[in-house]
Amino acid sequence: MAKILVVDDSELICMYLEETLDKSGHQVIIARDGLAGVKAADENKDIELIILDFGMPQMDGVTMAKKIREIPELAEIPMLMLTTESNPIVKEEGKKAGIWAWISKPLIAEKLTKTVDNALEQYRSVKSA
User: Fold this and answer.
1) 106 cis-preceded (ω within 30 degrees of 0)
2) pTM, to two decimals
3) How would you classify residue 25: left for phi > 0, otherwise alpha for psi between -120 and 50, otherwise beta?
4) What would the pLDDT profile of 49-102 be if each residue is shown by its tens digit?
5) How, if at all, do strands 3-7 and 79-83 pair?
6) Hey, what's the torsion of the CAs at 121, 127, 128, 129, to 10 degrees?
């Protein structure tokens, strides 16, 4: 089980992610925009993964990722970008901001769960080394 922060402005996406991740035994925290996501991350430094949307009000996902990297306790946390965005320039910006992987919409539960499990496994192995 991991504590996971989900940041997306779509209520339906948040509900789907929460339900899917909950079924896998994870605890989910929801934030509805980039600013709220940074605040939630700062208040929950024991999270082990962040799934964030690219296009959100207040602050986009890449900018949010950069802000998260400024929090020392979360500087290495895996972040997965959930988006329909396929622009290579945006993807490169995301990579520079510390995005580990891109998850394309529409979501498929098995693919999401596998990506989350892989990211958590990598993070935990690096963290314990």
Assistant:
1) yes
2) 0.94
3) left
4) 999 999 898 999 999 999 999 999 999 999 999 888 778 888 899 999 999 999
5) unpaired
6) 110
